[in-house]
Amino acid sequence: MKKRICIVMFYTAVIFLSGCIQPSLKPLFNEDEMFVDPNLFGVWKAVDSNETWEFKNAEEAGIYELVITDKKGKQGAFAAALGELEGELFLNIFPGQFNEEKNDYYNELVVGMHTCIWVKQIEPCLQMAIMDTGRVEEIIEKDANAVAHIEIGDDRIALAADTNDLQDFVIEYGIEADDVNSIFENLSEFTKVQN
Fold first, then answer.
1. Would you give the end-to-end CA distance of the chain in angstroms?
2. Separation in Å, CA 179 to CA 48, 125, 133, 135, 175
3. Burial class (CB in 10 A: 0-12, 13-18, 19+), 3
4. Where are the beta strands (DSSP E) in the chain?
5. Burial degree of 65 (CB within 10 A; 0-12, 13-18, 19+)
6. Among candidates 12, 21, 11, 7, which has minimal Cα distance to 185?
7. Judging by DSSP bridges, how do beta strands 88-95 and 75-85 pair with one another?
8. How far is the C-alpha of 40 from the C-alpha of 64, rounded, in Å?
9. β 52-57/75-85 pair status
10. Residue 127: phi, psi to the nearest 5?
11. Looking at residue 81, what is its pLDDT?
């Protein structure tokens, strides 16, 4: 069964993914648009590395606990929930636990960011494509009003659109765009190694 999911991630998750990913200040979904589908529960391992994504049931209704372990064994904790756009499933991921070894000043300054990863299918393997910073920047260079954004240093931008405008942007430049012009690229494949 093919399902499409867009994963919106905390910006520091960039260390877990190859390539540059596009940060966003706002989530892709409002709280009342989020739900859980048990098909994602379990541990998913990247086909070409030992990176894993573990989806567990959280105590809060409608939310997953997500632990991403990168190729070097470093972990990041996130909260995640499904939503739907244009009949397609998307997964909103946002900050979970902060590293307790950091001091209070550090933790107070950490800003939760999101990014979007499109999961092309869940079964028989999980296939995901990240939202690419370069492609988003090309769109903004052609039309500065395509989506609200801010500069975040090092010549990078973060999307600053509200949730509804962000959904419109993902639909227009992701779902409805052809493969050449889509803001999603770099397909990664994961197999379920544990339920």
1. 17
2. 23, 20, 16, 12, 9
3. middle
4. 5-8, 42-46, 52-57, 64-69, 75-85, 88-95, 116-121, 126-131, 149-151, 157-159, 184-194
5. middle
6. 21
7. antiparallel
8. 9
9. unpaired
10. -120, 125
11. 79
pTM, two decimal places: 0.77
Tokens standing for residue 31: 């709280």
27: which DSSP letter? -
The dihedral built from the CA positions of residue 88, 132, 158 and 113, taken in this order, carries a sign that is positive
- Name the percent of the chain in helix, strand, coil, to the closest 5: 20, 40, 40
Q: What is the pLDDT along the chain (195 residues), one digit of tens a residue?
A: 333 333 333 333 333 333 466 788 898 888 889 888 888 999 999 999 999 999 998 878 788 898 989 888 888 888 887 888 898 878 888 777 545 555 555 555 566 777 777 878 888 898 888 888 889 999 999 999 999 999 887 778 899 999 999 999 999 999 999 888 899 887 889 999 988
Quick one: tokens of 9?
A: 């991630």
Rounded Cα distance, 3 and 25, in Å: 26
Element (H, E) at 136: helix 133-142
Q: Tokens 């756009």 sit at which residue?
A: 85
